[in-house]
């Protein structure tokens, strides 16, 4: 029987858009959920067949908000069950996945860093990239970078091309 694992709108210990309080809440909430989806993929890899990461609209007294969920369609599959157990707790911070928050909050006032999904991914690919010697400065970066490169080859090519251009300049 299909079910959802609610992972949240952003990593647990990060500030986020607040329904009924944050200006442009819907836009910021959707942006944060998309970035969180990418961060989950960076940390845990692409969901196996039989489940998928998606946004789920939720009703609240103040309106609607979206949270990231793992939609499990085949709970009998061992890989699906293992992935669901792994991602269930989500992330605590953006940095766990090599990401910068797409929105920063200073006294609850949002400052949008980027709204472009490609730039969110390219930034994380640059943060987690190997050094000139091909080694990763932090062991986890190899996993994060590898998961992002496998899931988003087009964005990985853009990130690599920018690094090549910067080195040539």
Topology:
Layout: E1 3-8, H1 25-44, E2 51-60, E3 63-72, H2 78-87, E4 103-106, E5 109-112, H3 117-127, H4 139-151, H5 153-168
Antiparallel strand pairs: 1-3, 2-3, 4-5
What does this molecule look like?
There is one protein chain. By secondary structure, the chain is of the alpha+beta class. The protein has one domain. The protein has five helices and five strands. Strand 2 and strand 3 form a beta hairpin. Helix 1 (25-44) crosses helix 4, helix 3 (117-127) packs antiparallel against helix 4 and helix 4 packs across helix 5. The relative contact order is 0.17. The mean pLDDT is 93.
Principal-axes shape call? globular
The order of strands across the largest sheet is: 1-3-2
Number of strands: 5
Structural class of the helices, strands and pairings? alpha+beta
Give the rounded overall mean pLDDT: 93
Helical content class? 40-55%
What share of residues are in beta strands?
A: 15-25%
The CA-CA distance between the termini, in Å, is 55 Å
Q: pLDDT below 50 for ≥5 consecutive residues: which ranges?
A: none
Report the C-alpha radius of gyration, rounded.
Answer: 17 Å
Main β-sheet, in a few words? 3 strands, antiparallel
**What is the overall number of helices?**
5
SSE string: EHEEHEEHHH
Counting structural domains, the number is: 1
